[in-house]
Amino acid sequence: MDNSQNIIARSATTTTPPQVRSHVDEVAKLIDVSKCIGCKACQVACMEWNDLRDDVGECHGTYDNPTDLTANSWTVMRFSEYESQEGNLEWLIRKDGCMHCAEPGCLKACPAPGAIVQYANGIVDFDSNHCIGCGYCITGCPFDIPRISPKDQKSYKCTLCSDRVNAGMEPACVKTCPTNCIEFGTKTDMLARAEKRVGDLKALGFRDAGIYDPAGVGGTHVMYVLHHANDPNRYSGLPKDPRISPLVGAWKGATKPIMSAIIGITAFAGVIHYMTKGPKEEPEERTEHGQEDVPPPHSLGYDATRPRGEDR
Amino acid sequence: MKMPRDRLIRYSPLDRANHWTMAMVFVLLALSGLAFFHPAFFFLSHTLGGPVWARILHPFLGVVLVLLFYAMAVRHVRRNLLGENDIQWARQIGDVLDNRDDKLPPIGKYNPGQKLVYWSLVVSIALLLLSGVIMWRPWFAGYFPIPLIRFASLLHAVSAFVAIVTIVVHVYAAIWVKGSIRSMTRGWVTRAWARHHHGLWAREQEEAQRREQQP
User: Fold this and answer.
1) A158 with A187, same domain?
2) Fewest CB atoms within 10 A around its CB: which of A72, A104, A160, B51?
3) Choosing from B58, B170, B197, B198, which is the catalytic residue?
4) How, if at all, do strands B7-9 and A182-186 pair?
5) Is B198 designated active site?
């Protein structure tokens, strides 16, 4: 994490984070799936810039390599072969990685103050130094992106090259992409460009072409242009309507203040009860030591032989 | 050990040792758990040596609590089933709270409030174990689908809330009812205490003693 003064959201923090430059433009990465050739240069550039070394895996008989995101592979190309109803085969390639949601589920779920921050430009960044390794970010993410390293038990994911962006550069994957499938700029500019591409695709016959900027998470700062925006699931399970799960919402939303308050009120009620009603004590028994151990009738609590209200 | 005549044994040394071990473990679990639950309680993670250590140790302590608790619970099931006069006692909860004890019917070793604490913990600790294993990183969470982990996380928070409120009530009741803390630290209660608070149990114990004394 680079800029500690442009933070608009900070995990497990109930006060306003430092955001003196909250007026900065939102940025976005636009991935035009229709232009991707699956060369994996973006994966290499990501490893190179971020200086990551993943273990050498195994070939699973597909082009997916590595087959999944890991703590050391922050972006992977996912290849899917889709057969359309007309019998045409489509090879759909999607660069997967953090979507940098405007409403990040990871940040909502994270219990460690400052381990996840959202900058004013929209980038969601992990400050792994504050990470405690609980994995709540994985539980909160609607896209299944964060990965915990088995080495240090810290969570990692794409930073959208926040260090480069902060210095006025584009992310490494954008810089290296040979087909300009990945572009970077302000979110407004990227949306305009995406609109144009969608128009082009429609002209080419892709009637369902569209922009993937899901509203359920407040929009994302990584967007796709899809030829089949009506069915994002085709692209290796890209969710159609991602949102923070209502279970996560309940867990990290309403229950927190309500349950905390009830615990406090219960303890306080105890104090008030004791002060108003006093302790519960048994009456003293008047048996003398050494005598037969039969209790006098008045010590048995309720005494049916005694007329009510006698001593009052 | 020979007890003075005016005393009755209520908790064995093993019961007491187990109770106070559980008490310490529960407090550590509750404090570290609250730290992950709400930012306002995050500082409590230092009770287990900082947030990362709290994350590492919390589940292991949970397993310790589960073992101690159910070892205790199985031995006390019978005493915590609905007993004579329990419903009448519960109906008169207003008299209980107002300390109008002379109006209450005599009850067994545990009153309905204590039984409620027992069953509340039997259920909530079981749910905490189940949901806790599903959330447990790095060991088990990876074997479960993320939607299930989400459900488990919510369930864990709600069950922990039930358990904590239950324990707050339990602790207050111990402070409120004089003589009960001594019964759990020293093991005995006075006959007068037993007759007053647990009349049926006192009668049962005294009859048992009488039978023992007769050759």
Assistant:
1) yes
2) A72
3) B170
4) unpaired
5) no
Contact B37 A138 (CB under 8 A): no
A82 and A202 co-located in one domain: yes
Q: Do B168 and A263 touch (CB under 8 A)?
A: yes
Domain count, chain A: 2
* B176 CB within 8 Å of a chain A CB: yes
Q: What is the number of other CB atoms lying within 10 angstroms of the CB of residue B107? A: 22
Looking at the partner chain, which of B40, B51, B191 has a beta carbon nearest the beta carbon of A260? B40
Calpha distance B73→B115 (Å, rounded): 11
CB-nearest to A278 from B42, B99, B195 is B99
Q: What single DSSP character describes residue A56?
A: P
How does the average pLDDT of chain A come out, rounded? 91
Any idea of the CA torsion for B126, B131, B132, B134, to the nearest 10 degrees? Answer: 140
* Domain, as residue range, for A134: 7-227
Question: In order of start, what are the domains of chain B with their CATH numbers?
Answer: 7-213 (1.20.950.20)
Residue of chain A whose Cα is closest to the Cα of B97: A277
A260 shares a domain with A218: no
Residue A164 sits in the same domain as residue A269: no
pLDDT band at A213 (very low <50, low <70, confident <90, very high): very high
CA dihedral sign of residues A248, A137, A146, B133: negative
Task: Find, in chain B, the residue whose alpha carbon is nearest to that of A275.
Answer: B176
pLDDT (tens digit per residue) in A43-66:
999 999 999 999 998 888 889 999
Closest CA to B135 of B161, B154, B122: B154
Cβ contact A211:A191 at 8 Å: yes
Token output for A23: 């007026």
Identify whether residues A257 and A216 lie together within a single domain. Answer: no
Averaged pLDDT, A150-175 = 96
State how far the Cα of B101 lies from the Cα of A280, in Å rounded to an integer.
Answer: 8
- The answer, yes or no, to whether residue A298 has pLDDT greater than 60, is no
Q: Are strands A27-32 and A222-226 parallel, antiparallel or unpaired?
A: parallel
Q: What is the CATH number of the domain that holds A125?
A: 3.30.70.20
The answer to whether the complex's ipTM is over 0.90 is yes
Within 8 A of A251 by CB-CB distance, chain B residues are 150, 153-154, 157
**Average pLDDT for B104-125:** 97
